[in-house]
Amino acid sequence: MLLSSQFLTWNELISQDSFTHLWALVRGALALNASTFERVHTEPHSLLAALTIVFLAGLSQSLSQIVVLFINQVRPLRFVLSLLISALFFVVGYGFWALSIWSILNLTVDGQLQFVSVLRTLGFSYAPLMLGVLVVFPYFGSAIFVLLSIWTLLGVVIGIDAITTVSRWEAFESAAIGWTVVQLLQKTVGQPIATLGQWITNWVAGEDLITNRARLAEELYAGLRFSRGEPAPGQQSPQPVSTDRAEELQRIALVGKAARSQIGGQISGQISGQISGQISGQISSQRKREPTERER
Amino acid sequence: MNSRLTKLSAVILLTVGVIVLLSPLNSQWLNWYLAFNSTLLKLIVDLTRVSLIALLLAGLLSPFESLGWWAGWYGDGIETHIPATIPMNLSAKSSSLPQPSRYIIYLDGISQSSADYPKRVQNFLNTLAAALPSDMVFIQDIMAYSALNRPLTIQRPFARVWRGINHIETWNANSPLDIFVNLRNTFQVAVSTDNRYGPVFNRGTAQVILNSLRQRGYQPGEPITLIGYSGGAQVALGAVTYLKYALDAPIEVISISGVVSGNNGVALIDRLYHLKGDRDLLAQLGAIMFPKRWPIMSWSSWNLAKVEGRVQLISLGPVSHSGPSGPIDPVATLPNGNSHLGQTMDIVMSILT
């Protein structure tokens, strides 16, 4: 019942007044204005707004990881769905963090604090991450992401400080401990949930996503050296050459993707061990990677 | 048609998204803006805002060409820019000419938009091609800023715009419109230097170079020299990592007024000759913008390569980055009477021969 009053009807949503009002709160949160975090709790629709902010922040967070989806060659529709799922998981993570902070504050300082208050405050403090689309920007994007994350952390601290009687440092400590607890739980008792999350992510992407940074980098070497890529239409046939190394060269992939489907599954983890003399005789025995759904 | 519609919808969605998401930042700005009384001033401010948003969008979209290429979003092929016929003197396999002693690949600066180079660059390439020994193969048809090896002027959503700009540029060489080409390609240089996207972009350009080498009858192990002008030097260094893996051949890079990050390829390179004019602000900016090139980062691959003598800095004297006072201008002269082009040619030839 309490929650139902937090959500807008469609008419309310499109009414300019409430939208403008909520937008003003977002601006206040961006400006790290402590009074905004106090006002949030008197607004009727602020929980929906908070959840929306967190979802958008989650989208930003997933945008910073798009290269993982691209290197894994996820198709456009699945790519968009993967971003949305990732944003939803981000919202779930925010829920756990809020729960963790609320538990700590309730156990140590303020026994009267409502969970929904922490949800609202934490949600609005995510406002800086709404600008996270900027993390896609080449070269500067990573630095922008770090700045936005620090900005968000400051928002969380100021927000908690505003709704409780704790000091700024205590607010920071509760946020930090809360975050650590969530991470620990995720790695231990929360493992089945994390595995389920990974399973859903892979299911949406249509393949087992490689997420390890080193393995992603290795993926890019696939097909560079030893593929049997056929010449593309209009391409000249390879010249006959004599040496083994020359034969390898002739097989240089014309098409990264085609080459990867030939040897991609195998090549990861083997790059360092691959030497030219070994490969010429092995190509014929290289098994094909199990085709993914989109390749079928 | 569907794919075009999808792309267009994605761009529109991104535009609206950016505008909406940035709107909370508008409040202070709007108060300031509404205080203006002059219509002209408001117009100028509006135009600036629109330009900034367009610039932001262009930057946000810039990684997607190479990322989409790798993911196979644009079909299965990497489009190679194949000349209809390869000139006999360039095709190593086409005659009884001796085995080429070296392959030289030119990667142009950020003003490149199509296979037709600007006059000054073409003049440099012609001079270099004429001066090179007959046993060296010179490749100059690479689109340095596209993992698809695709010029800006064909098979792109905004190809017509780029063609228009090229047309105006041909008609009026002093037109300021080339800044759009420069900006577009600068973003691609940024993509090449980016820790996230760089590997994919650099893999793409390496593939383009490999294909071109193969067309010219490249034999494994033959040494390669990449000549990169301005941003082309960064593209060259980016590709080195993958070229080295693919070919296992000696690879040198000659950077002419190069803007290079120092974090790609330098670790694997046999030698980098970095030619820079004293009045070259852009190349200087590169040294400031990229932390790996700061002298204090003594453990960076750039600084280690410098210590090992694999990176050689060569001063061009009072020469700027490009244009009439740039390193490949045939008219401008140095205090010693040599032309800028003459000096650059002397250095490049002494490295190559």
TrEMBL record, chain A:
Taxonomically, which superkingdom?
Bacteria
Give the residues annotated as coiled coil: none
Q: Where is this region: Disordered?
A: 260-296
What are the Low complexity biased-composition ranges? 261-285
Chain ranges passing through the membrane: 47-71, 83-105, 125-158
Q: Where is the composition biased (Basic and acidic residues)?
A: 287-296
For this UniProt record, the keywords arranged alphabetically read as follows: Membrane, Transmembrane, Transmembrane helix
Write down what this protein is called.
Yip1 domain
Annotated organism of origin? Phormidesmis priestleyi Ana
From TrEMBL, chain B:
Q: Which InterPro entries match?
A: AB_hydrolase_fold (IPR029058)
Lineage top rank: taxon: Bacteria
Name of the featured protein: Thioesterase domain
